[in-house]
Amino acid sequence: MEKVPYHGNPGNAACALACYTMAAQYLLPDEHITFEQMAKIARMKKGYVVWGFPAWKWMMDRGIHIADYDKSDIEAWAKEGIEGLRKTVAPKEFKYYQDNTEDLEKVTKQLALATEHTNFTYKQCHVTWDMIVEETKKPGICDVTLDGRKLHRADGFSVHRVILIEITDNEVIFHDPTQKNDGAYKHEPIDFFRAAVESLDGPELARYSL
Hints:
- This protein has helices spanning 15-27, 35-41, 53-61, 74-80, 82-88, 91-100, 104-115, 129-137, 148-151, 190-198, and strands at residues 65-70, 120-124, 141-147, 159-167, 171-175, 186-189, 205-209.
- It is an alpha+beta fold.
- It has a domain at 66-209.
């Protein structure tokens, strides 16, 4: 099993930032990047969803390659603004992003930080479980979005992001950036974890590699 640095989620919407920090610490140990430094790079606002584009640019500028798979149409989002995003994600997911993002218009302007970088590849598609399994076998490390409320056996809905460590024949081992800081090397049965992923109409999968 890979040894991957762990970081929790000190806020109610900083799971993505924690994942970017873990991926960067794993692939770029000599950078000694901290969560707090990554928060400044990502322009984090406490209590709001962190979008990855500034953080991804920082990572890619240092040699990391990012392959992103997502149902949303980044080109439509860039050309049409927020309406372009609305068209390609499920209503409950769009509402979550809208309610939990400080300024979606500002995020739209950040798209080019990633999409125009030579180390970034994007495939618009519906992410399947088989794709997730295959990507985790490749070099680097992956993160994936899922329904955090379902993963944590709670009512309601939230978009949550975790780092994938290993997928065996019967379980998923992952870093779950929790507010209690107790989510390192969690084990869940494949069927349960997969159901949390597939609760999203369009889960996002990203692989980070050198």
